[in-house]
C-alpha cells in the first residue's frame, strides 16, 4: 500500500526541512508545490512570469494551475509507492483534487502531521532562511541551522540565496493566508482522524523523531 503523507503547518514551521528528511529516510519523493513553482523561475513563458509575481507578493497560485502541476508530478514513476506533500494542498478544492488523483492510483492520504509554531518564531525563522541555488531543498537558517561556511551549501558547495518571497511583508501575508484559506482544511482531514499535532518549536532532530514515531504508529495501526 502506498504511503501519502501531507505535512501541514504555517509558513516557517519546518515543512520543507522535515519533508526533505522524511523523503530521504522513507525513499519517497518530496512533492513541494513551492519548489516546483520556484523551479519555473527564469522560464520564458507568460505563465512562469505570472507565477513568480504571485509568489513574490505572498499570494496563492490559482488552484487549477497548482493541481495540474501536482498531477504531472504524481504521474512520475517514483510517486507510485507514495509521496511526502509539502505546501499542498492549501485549499479545499486542492484537497478534493488530491483525493481524486490518489484514488486513481488506488491510494489515499494516510497521515497529516500538523507542525505547530507561534507566528513570531515563524517570521523570525523565515527572515533568517537561506537556500541552496543548486538544490533548494537544501535549506539553512542563519540563526538556528547555519551552513559550515557562510554563504555556501554544505552538501554541494553551491552559493546560498534568500528567497525573493522571504521579506517580512510577504511572510506575514503568507501566514495570514494560511489562517484564512489553509487552516480550515484541517477540519476536512480531522473528520477522517488523520491529523496529529507535532510541536515544531523543538530542534529539527526532535521534530523528525516525533514524526517518525507518528509514521511508525500509523503503519502498524
Ligand atoms: P512554499 O515554498 O510552500 O513556502 P511557504 O508556504 O511560504 O512555506 P515555507 O517554505 O516558508 O515554510 P516551511 O514550513 O517549509 O519552512 P522551512 O522548512 O523552510 O510556497 C511558496 C509560494 O508558492 C506560496 O506563497 C504560493 O505563492 C506558492 N504556492 C506553493 N504551494 C501552493 C499551493 N498549494 N497553492 C497555491 N500556491 C502555492 O523552515 C523555515 C526556516 O526555519 C528554515 O531556515 C529552516 O532551516 C528553519 N527551521 C526549520 N525547522 C526548524 C526547527 N525545528 N528549529 C529551528 N529552525 C528550523
Automatic annotation (TrEMBL):
Gene3D superfamilies per the UniProt record, alphabetical = P-loop containing nucleotide triphosphate hydrolases
Q: What is this protein called?
A: Adenylate kinase
Q: What is known of its domains?
A: Consists of three domains, a large central CORE domain and two small peripheral domains, NMPbind and LID, which undergo movements during catalysis. The LID domain closes over the site of phosphoryl transfer upon ATP binding. Assembling and dissambling the active center during each catalytic cycle provides an effective means to prevent ATP hydrolysis.
Please give the residue ranges the record annotates as the region NMP. 32-61
Subunit info?
A: Monomer.
One CC-aspect GO term? cytoplasm
Any idea what job this protein has? Catalyzes the reversible transfer of the terminal phosphate group between ATP and AMP. Plays an important role in cellular energy homeostasis and in adenine nucleotide metabolism.
Q: What is this enzyme's class at the first EC digit?
A: transferase
Q: Name the predominant localization.
A: cytoplasm
Subcellular location, in the record's words? Cytoplasm
Q: Which NCBIfam families match?
A: adk (TIGR01351), PRK00279.1-3 (NF001381)
Keywords, sorted A to Z: ATP-binding, Cytoplasm, Kinase, Nucleotide biosynthesis, Nucleotide-binding, Transferase
Amino acid at each position: 500500500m502506498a504511503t501519502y503523507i501531507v505535512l501541514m503547518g504555517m509558513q516557517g514551521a519546518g515543512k520543507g526541512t522535515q519533508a526533505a528528511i522524511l523523503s530521504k529516510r522513507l525513499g519517497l519523493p518530496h512533492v513541494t508545490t513551492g519548489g516546483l513553482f520556484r523551479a519555473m523561475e527564469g522560464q520564458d513563458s507568460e505563465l512562469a512570469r505570472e507565477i513568480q509575481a504571485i509568489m513574490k507578493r505572498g499570494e496563492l497560485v490559482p488552484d487549477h494551475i497548482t493541481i495540474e502541476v501536482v498531477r504531472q508530478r504524481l504521474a512520475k514513476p517514483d510517486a507510485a509507492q507514495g509521496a511526502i506533500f509539502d505546501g499542498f494542498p492549501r485549499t479545499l478544492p486542492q484537497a478534493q483534487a488530491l483525493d481524486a488523483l490518489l484514488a486513481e492510483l488506488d491510494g489515499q492520504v494516510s497521515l497529516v502531521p500538523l507542525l505547530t509554531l507561534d507566528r513570531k518564531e515563524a517570521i523570525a525563522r523565515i527572515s533568517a532562511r537561506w537556500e541552496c541555488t543548486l538544490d533548494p531543498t537544501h535549506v539553512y537558517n542563519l540563526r538556528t541551522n547555519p551552513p559550515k561556511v557562510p554563504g555556501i551549501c554544505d552538501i554541494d558547495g553551491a552559493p546560498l540565496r534568500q528567497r525573493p518571497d522571504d521579506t517580512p511583508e510577504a511572510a506575514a501575508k503568507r501566514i495570514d493566508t494560511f489562517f484564512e484559506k489553509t487552516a480550515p482544511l484541517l477540519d476536512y482531514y480531522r473528520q477522517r482522524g488523520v491529523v496529529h499535532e507535532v510541536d515544531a518549536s523543538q530542534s529539527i532532530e526532535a521534530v523528525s523523531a516525533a514524526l517518525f514515531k507518528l509514521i511508525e504508529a500509523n503503519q502498524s495501526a
